Amino acid sequence: MVAHRHCDEGPAGAPIRNDFAQEARRAAFVGCVDRLTRLIERETEALRTRSDVDFEDFNARKTHALLEFSRASRADTAPRSASIESKIERLRATLLENGRLLERRLRAMREIAGIMIYTMEMAESDGTYSTRSSPER
Question: How confident is the model at residue 137, as a pLDDT?
């Protein structure tokens, strides 16, 4: 008997798991990892090159991709191969770099906001506004 993936038995009568569904879940999971990695890499590149970043768009797309990833991850219960672990490790590294760049941008934005607040406070205290309650006539 020739063993095919749809057969119940393989060589020497060993059972073959008729698990195309698991293969589909694995493919869905790998696709989610790849899409999420590419998305994060695009945002990271935009941050690295100081391009305009539409954070609302990226956040919406990341939220959706993370939801898909979470669902696919829970559905894929088979042991992970070395190639899949490699993809996940690449995603982790990409996320770490992305996080560092986002933190640096946020820190810069805080510094700029602090400078703007300081400048406005100094403009208000330069004598333009008096502490008197009513103007002189």
Answer: 45
